[in-house]
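Protein modeling request. Please complete all fields; requests missing the sequence field cannot be processed.
Requester role: graduate student
Desired output: 3D structure, token encoding
Chains: 1
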Amino acid sequence: MALSPRGQQILGTVVVVFVGGFLLLAGLDHTELRCDRARGSCSYAAGLLGFERAREIPLDAIVDHRFDTHAGRAGTRGVTVLIDASGRELALGVTDEASARADYDALHAFLQGSGDGVTVATGPSWWLLGFALLCFLFGPWIVRPSGPARAAAPVDAQPRRGASAPTLALVVGVLVLVGLTASILTSRTQGSLALRCTQRCDVGGGSCMPGSEMVLTLAPGEHEVRVFNPDEPAAPIVHRVAVVRGQVTHFECAR
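Delivered output (255 residues):
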């Protein structure tokens, strides 16, 4: 069944708000690593511009680094990856290959002893913010209903009850933006624990059965993973697994 002009306007406005909100949040994404040799550490910040979460990384905790590339429809993208003593990796933000290579070369030279400081940053993406602005400015005009004007209602007609199209679109748009913001903030402030289970294991209130896999979103820090012990069912094998903000920690539940 075809949508009415009012329904088409509501649907179009929701799509415009969704696309504009997504572009806005993607454009505001910002990652920065600022290292100072005199201070002996690097300051790492990641998140939406103006709302980044920062932490200090001692220089002696960085044991290795590498440059990765990823080929896609938009071309080849590059990223610098830091590796600490435990093998955990920290990606410094994906950008075009040329910019990422220049950032890697600057960081590599610094870690090899050249210079007193270095800054590696990605974002914000101004062209994404520009497209978001265009969506918000011209989107309502594009999705306006077309065709002959609606006939005027009789003077004595009862007013229709219910929310107007702009009100509904605004409510849906706000909900979409809240959901996107919550998703991005969660990915920036929480970490993930990916379990591959050959034995049953329990983490918090969740259980992973043999032969299955499970991914949990957890607060950064150490978490207790209890692996089933067939020799002593009442005494599980306890492991302390570190979860890092913005990263996925892999753990195999086995004896």
